[in-house]
Model the fold of this input.
Amino acid sequence: MSEAIAGRQEEGVLEAEGPPLGELHAPLRDLVVDRLRADILSGRYKSGERLVEDRLAEDFKVSRNPVREAIRALAAEGLVAVAPRRGATVAGFSTAETREMIEVRATLEAMNARLAARRRDPGMIATLMECLNEGQRRAGEGDPAELVRLNAHFHDLLAAAGHNRILGDLMRQLRERTNLVFAPRSANGAAQTWEEHRAILEAVIAGDEELAALLASRHVLQAGERHLEAAQTEAAAGGEAGPTASAVTLEAAKARSP
Amino acid sequence: MSEAIAGRQEEGVLEAEGPPLGELHAPLRDLVVDRLRADILSGRYKSGERLVEDRLAEDFKVSRNPVREAIRALAAEGLVAVAPRRGATVAGFSTAETREMIEVRATLEAMNARLAARRRDPGMIATLMECLNEGQRRAGEGDPAELVRLNAHFHDLLAAAGHNRILGDLMRQLRERTNLVFAPRSANGAAQTWEEHRAILEAVIAGDEELAALLASRHVLQAGERHLEAAQTEAAAGGEAGPTASAVTLEAAKARSP
DNA sequence: ACGACCTATCTTGTATACAAGATTGCGAGG
DNA sequence: CCTCGCAATCTTGTATACAAGATAGGTCGT
Done:
């Protein structure tokens, strides 16, 4: 991510390269945010676990203030839930909320794929191809953390190819939240995931907006179905839960999203 | 919003009515958030204006801490921009960002209208009718603040009718951000706005998902066009700016969104 | 033994204090 | 007259302290 900045400049005034440079050394709060987010997404903290300010402050060797602000920032991202005067916990989502998130994500990913197919930015497409190859190669190995990272990277690149930063931000937020839900079973179907990525990218390259949108939408919905199915059978094995919404739940969405 | 809670209960154990009751008396931070957001959306603070923690703390007669957290919360909503060690300012959006926000909002509103039309929740529809009548009545009078409030209310109700809270939250955030951009010219075309609201609601009542989505999308895009046109002629009058993107910019989006 | 109340403890909410980065204006030197 | 540099000031970042709300465990009464 960081480019060489120091090199000699031929021009008289050295132009401000990249960010205003003061933004580089981050406040403690941001470091805590990044660390906490990573810990949550990696599953180091489980859903529902309490996040006590004092304990985190001690862990990170900082005062409570940066920790507090970090927690609030993550709450805004939807990764932690805070109850007034009762503290924060790692967010957990009901089946209904999970379904809602997936439907919205499907719609947004479809929109973005459409935009990307419309633009066909050659640079982004080249970068996406690289990521795709890397992903398909690693899909067999099965290092979960690395696969999650590559998946995130692919989706980030696709978002960049859509050239709508507002949309990209929303998609990233929703992706992190769904990843949090999926975390227990994250390595599920990596090969199929990357096959779908390939198909989406091909449609983008072909400039086929309709197809790109359709495939992107299905990509999200199918991942959601895989999760909900697994969660249901898992629940049935444990507590013999009633026939809750599952694969069927999302079918209606498929028909309309792109 | 606050219901009567004290009344005698016939049941042996008084059931927790509504929220856990401890959530009622809000922390100072939340009060500051609400106040600041209202002040920003009402135009009391203009775009780009600095938000100095000390000054706000003194204004509100609280310490800097709640103010800090409030500013960060509003930053997460996209209403203020913070630069590290340089403080916060009321957010301002470029033409490109505004266009992006409008396109995303159009997509989400379309999705929500589709969901609402699918559900046809009788209760919500009745409430929406009330709001619609009130809105059309007031559209002629032209009290800008009241119209903004009613518009927000209508969209909130429509979101509730869609029964997807994740979607509703995102729509509210985007609506507030666009309202911030539109603020200077907010009273623009109130009559047409409420005519569009009426058409959307009719499509929802008829259960016509396609039409509801189409109309909702257009509703957002047309409001965006009105704004961009006004902004452009305004800019041309002042600084004779080049022919920037405007009405044309959003046309491509119209063809595909629903 | 069971339940209600009361207290000890933990945790969050708010305030204040201090350190360090950013900005601005003035003065010295060219 | 302009520019460079320094310093005074303003503002944010972080830490610490204290107040008040929530929780849990024990004790007393029945």
